[in-house]
Design a protein that fits this description.
- It contains 21 helices and 12 strands.
- The chain is of the alpha+beta class.
- It folds into 4 domains: 212 residues, no CATH class; 141 residues; 86 residues, no CATH class; 126 residues.
- Strands 3, 4, 9, 10, 11 and 12 form a 6-stranded mixed β-sheet that branches. Strands 5-6-7-8 form a 4-stranded antiparallel β-sheet, with no helix packed on it.
- β1 and β2 form a beta hairpin.
- It is globular.
- Keywords: Membrane, Transmembrane, Transmembrane helix.
Length: 588
């Protein structure tokens, strides 16, 4: 094919795409303009809310167009539906003005869920065509996405190379030229190319273009059959072994397992659908037996997440974890026992997504209400005259203090502390928490409950640091040398001081750490910091920040004085003691 023929074909294809998705491509142009204006203003003006709202409009308009091709509607009705659908992005723009993405987690969460839900809808709509399964739609979407991504990356690299050459050889271009080109390539050219790769989904027609679009590429087939499936099976074996060996202990409280299990089930469900079109024996066996394994793991994950919810209450994050657990179980049951209803799985996910952002029953609203109730239940016995009458440090158990600080931290992140009527009006979370309640706001990070959990465990670890929430003030009267040093800087080397022949020697070995003041080879003063290790172990599991009075050690004789202020001390049992220090040295 000649270059001219190639360009003419692309021109025809793009004109057809513009004609097929006129409103969607118009919104893409708007998104690019909003981004360029933001770049041009260098942050003085932010049009992110407008761009995000327009992006939602694009996803909705494309889905409506695909639906209208599968289930033909009157042209006027189709345009009315498309026009009406633009109300949602407009309303969402006004919502984002009240809950900006940069400061409000509610806005961030709803935006992410909306984008995810509409993306799933875009993939699911073609399954309404009687000749297209969800696995077919998934494959054609993957092909279109990676084709557009490859084209866009190569195009952007080429444009960047041209700009770089021009800047180097002729005239220096502003850095914003690169950002402008990125916006045009990735926010307009890439999406339009993606849309151009979507075939016409006419229920009354079965075209060669449709067959070509849903055919699985040989490379993807090899990746699924010989890489993804074997890796997933080996990972499953390791996961099952871990669950069986820790089923009475660590598994139910291991926070690292939760995101791992969620990621695992997501990959597992997607791989199941992709494997349907792979004509290999291993793929057929995988599709037959793997759903039962996935079902067992999904049940374990949901039960584990429920136990964690019982410990610290429900938050929006836990809400989504439990919601996804329900989706995993239901979808695997449908896949395994109701194979004729598999098309319902993505629509079930869409319903759960919409449910999670509806007012009153959305993830954030339920999370806030749950945490407010948790806090009120904990402090109710100690409230007099609409305020806490006594420091809670002496009233609550360690577990209750951990739950209290966790819930307070969550409400502070959601900017919902005003829901607690008994809090002082001028209460400042970071400045007043410890003064009002008697313990640190980060208590839940350091608290380790005393439940007997079996299973493998590593060396004990302890950490303390100087409290820097207030300015550190100390006297330097009579001080001749000030040295700031960390163990990683020294590595058993001497520190030469300004006044010869004095030097500092730091020795670290396992859990022993000493700092000595020497004159030539004579030790004048020596301070063993190992005595601070008891303090570190005592504070392990609670607030590690200690006041200056507890982090300052002094050793002296009639001629010399060595004061050590410990900024940070960290201990790994039977392995090391590490830290950062300020040394104040006086001679004579």
């Amino acid at each position: 094919m000649s270059v001219k023929s190639w360009f003419m074909k692309r021109k025809t294809q793009w004109l057809a795409t513009f004609s097929r998705f006129p409103l969607a491509t118009s919104l893409l142009v708007l998104i690019v303009l909003f981004t360029i204006m933001t770049i041009h203003s260098e942050g003085d003006s932010d049009y992110m809310n407008q761009a995000l709202s327009a992006g939602l409009g694009v996803l909705m308009l494309v889905s409506i167009q695909l639906f209208s091709e599968i289930k033909p509607l009157n042209k006027l009705v189709t345009w009315i539906i498309k026009g009406s659908s633009l109300i949602l992005p407009l309303l969402y723009y006004f919502y984002l003005r009240q809950a900006p993405m940069g400061y409000n987690q509610s806005g961030q969460i709803r935006t992410m869920v909306l984008y995810f839900t509409l993306a799933v809808l875009l993939i699911a709509v073609p399954t309404l065509h009687h000749k297209i399964s969800f696995s077919d739609s998934l494959i054609l979407t993957i092909k279109a996405f990676f084709s557009s991504l490859l084209i866009s990356v190569i195009l952007f690299i080429g444009i960047s190379a041209i700009f770089s050459a021009y800047t180097t050889l002729i005239y220096e271009l502003d850095y914003r030229w690169f950002a402008y080109s990125a916006a045009i390539v990735f926010q307009f050219i890439a999406p339009v190319y993606f849309l151009s790769r979507l075939p016409l989904f006419k229920e009354t027609e079965h075209t060669e273009a449709l067959d070509e679009a849903k055919s699985i590429p040989s490379l993807l087939e090899i990746l699924i059959a010989y890489i993804i499936i074997p890796v997933l099976l080996v990972f499953s074996a390791i996961l099952i072994a871990y669950i069986l060996t820790n089923i009475s202990g660590d598994f139910w409280q291991d926070n690292l397992m939760e995101p791992m299990l969620i990621s695992y089930t997501i990959v597992g469900i997607v791989t199941l659908f992709l494997a349907e079109n792979v004509d290999k024996k291993i793929a057929r066996l995988f599709s037959r037996f793997y759903p039962y394994l996935l079902l067992v793991i999904a049940i374990f994950q949901t039960v584990s997440s429920s136990l964690k919810t019982a410990d610290f209450g429900l938050t929006h994050g836990r809400y989504f974890v439990l919601l996804f657990g329900i989706f995993s179980i239901v979808s695997v049951l449908i896949y395994s026992f109701l194979t004729s209803k598999k098309f319902f799985i993505p629509f079930f996910l869409i319903c759960l997504g919409v449910l999670s952002i509806l007012p009153v029953i959305d993830a954030v609203s339920i999370g806030v209400r749950n945490q407010v109730n948790t806090i009120n239940d904990l402090v109710a016995p100690y409230i007099e005259d609409d305020s806490v009458a006594t420091p809670l440090d002496s009233e609550l158990t360690n577990e209750e203090k951990a739950r209290f600080s966790y819930s307070m931290n969550y409400l502070n992140q959601q900017e919902q502390l005003d829901r607690l009527d008994w809090l002082p009006e001028d209460f400042s979370y970071y400045q007043d928490f410890e003064t009002v309640f008697g313990f640190d706001s980060s208590y839940h990070y350091y608290y380790a409950d005393d439940r007997d959990i079996s299973g493998p465990s590593g060396p004990r670890y302890a950490f303390i640091s100087l409290d820097t929430t207030e300015p550190i003030v100390f006297s330097t009267e009579g001080i001749d040398e000030v040295v700031e040093v960390a163990t990683f800087q020294v590595s058993d080397r001497d520190i030469q001081l300004n006044q010869e022949p004095y030097r500092i020697e730091m020795n670290t070995e396992n859990e022993n750490l000493t700092i000595a003041l020497l004159e030539n080879d004579t030790v004048l003063l020596e301070q063993d910091l190992s005595e601070l290790s008891d303090t570190a172990w005592e504070q392990s599991g609670t607030n590690p920040e200690r006041p200056l009075s507890e982090m300052q050690l002094t050793t002296e004789d009639e001629n010399y004085r060595l004061t050590i202020i410990v900024k940070r001390l960290e201990i790994q049992e039977n392995e090391f003691m590490d830290g950062e220090f300020i040394l104040l040295i006086s001679y004579d």
